[in-house]
Amino acid sequence: MFLQGTFSMEFTCLHHKFNSPPLPHLSLPFCKSPNPRIFPRKRNNLFLASASDTVVAASRKELGSKKDNEFGDLKSWMHKNGLPPCKVVLNERTSRDEKHSPIHYIAASEDLQAGDVAFSVPNSLVVTLERVLGNETVAELLTTNKLSELACLALYLMYEKKQGKKSFWYPYIRELDRQRGRGQLAVESPLLWSQDELAYLTGSPTKAEVLERAEGIKREYNELDTVWFMSGSLFQQYPYDIPTDAFPFEIFKQAFVAVQSCVVHLQKVPLARRFALVPLGPPLLAYRSNCKAMLSAVGGAVELVVDRPYKAGEPIAVWCGPQPNSKLLINYGFVDDDNSYDRLVVEAALNTEDPRYQDKRLVVQRNGKLSVQVFHVYAGKEKEAVSDMLPYLRLGYVSDPSEMQSVLSSQGPVCPVSPCMERAVLDQLADYFNRRLAGYLTTLNEDESLLSDTNLNPRRRVATQLVRLEKKILHACLQATTELIGELPDHSVSPCPAPYAPLLK
């Protein structure tokens, strides 16, 4: 068994199983085009303009033009095209950034009770890959090959926007332009931040996640032309250039992020319909981690059943899945202070140079762990997480052949651990948490001071919220480790030497 217990104490071996996080809950809009190889290449000025003039960056002047008013607002357009009477209204609030247009949001139009259907959007107003591609087989081929659902939908939206007011989806695209991929805090995903702004996340593993996601988007962009030709141009109704000729990468990335911020992940539907753009869905709906209401496919529509009472005029919220704050920031541009799913990752690995590596690998596998093991530290459950790490780390410190043989042959849940080994394990953990805390640019007190500034830049604010919550988790882990050190019976004991100590990162 794993090494459990210390001298006179015993520790129970904990076995946690962590599933991969679900795909993000969001929503989007797009359409189709004939084979571009039979048309002369024409540059469209709209998509050769600067990023601030395209796709998800319409100006307030553009959004408020009299010509656009002929379409009415998004909800009016939907009612004209089959949306049945519903119990929501489209309201507006001022953006924190005066350069940006106000944020629209969905609110209750009357008092609602838990279990009420707030709205039911017919499938004719919902965009999925099945509808975009007109072929479920092609949709599955694309998403299992080189192009994700989000990339495909983003590309479709870009071609559809080229149609301008001729597009059926023009009112919806106009609304997405207004939202600019912003979450309910009017902050764009860090995928669109500058290098200086990404520095706000220094010390947080989220910064590396952002850079990795950005690289993934770039790889998909580089594959667009290949997929376009393989599929006979993807969208059979559009007589336009091949993708990379028509759209620069920065524009594609903006569209991708806008789609990512609002796509809805439907359950119990075919693969080609699992990602859906629902015009009354996010980001018009607020996200809340403690909410259980979700958009669901019901018959020929996507509906929302509220999970709590609402007064008329209150914003309506939906659940965005069991996502940590790092994912909420990357996907939707916000952080939830009350997120019970928030977590940090601690990666531990057995030392491959250890002569007893193979034996130790066998032991950890026997106990449901891996030679490189990821431990999830959930907010509020830091003590449990530290207790779960200890058996794994203790094993890494075993060096005596007879002790290793005892571990291999042990049938019980408890193995003796010497005081000096326990001190070495706890010291390593404490040093690890201190190093992670030292990697941030600010302290917790400095974060609190920044957040008290009402004029703080919105991107700096949300980044500070994120790193502050991460530090709280790390501080709680450090405190739990320090308390265990304090319980050691003899503080004069020096830590055992550990030539092949496990690795932590």
TrEMBL record:
Position of the signal peptide: none
Record's GO cellular component terms: chloroplast stroma
Q: Which GO terms describe its biological process?
A: methylation
The record's section on SUPFAM superfamilies has: RuBisCo LSMT C-terminal, substrate-binding domain, SET domain
What one GO molecular function would you report for this record? Answer: protein-lysine N-methyltransferase activity
InterPro entries per the UniProt record, alphabetical: Rubisco_LSMT_subst-bd (IPR015353), Rubisco_LSMT_subst-bd_sf (IPR036464), SET_dom_sf (IPR046341), SETD3_SETD6_MTase (IPR050600)
Q: Which residues form the Rubisco LSMT substrate-binding domain?
A: 352-474
Q: Note the superkingdom of the native organism.
A: Eukaryota
Q: Pfam families of this UniProt entry?
A: Rubis-subs-bind
Q: Which UniProt keywords apply?
A: Methyltransferase, S-adenosyl-L-methionine, Transferase
PANTHER family, from UniProt? RUBISCO METHYLTRANSFERASE FAMILY PROTEIN, UNCHARACTERIZED PUTATIVE METHYLTRANSFERASE
What name is this protein filed under? Rubisco LSMT substrate-binding domain-containing protein
Q: What is the lineage of its organism?
A: Eukaryota, Viridiplantae, Streptophyta, Embryophyta, Tracheophyta
